[in-house]
Amino acid sequence: MGSISSDSHKKLQYVLTRMLEQFDKICRDNDIDYFVCYGTELGAVRHQGFIPWDDDADVGMMRSEFEKLKKVFEEQDTGDLFLGCPDGDYEWQEKVYPRLYCKDTIIELKYWEDSFELCGDKFGRSVNIDIFLFDYTDNDPEYIEKTIKKALKLKRNYMYYKFKSKVITDRGPGAFVFSIIKRLMYDFHHSDPDASKKEFAKYVKLTDHPKSDYIINFDDLEAPDIRASLIRYDQVFPTVTGTFEGFEVKMQRDYDAALTKLYGDYMSPPPEERKDVHQTYRVEFGNYKFPDSLSD
Question: What are the structural domain ranges in the chain?
Answer without folding.
Answer: 6-294
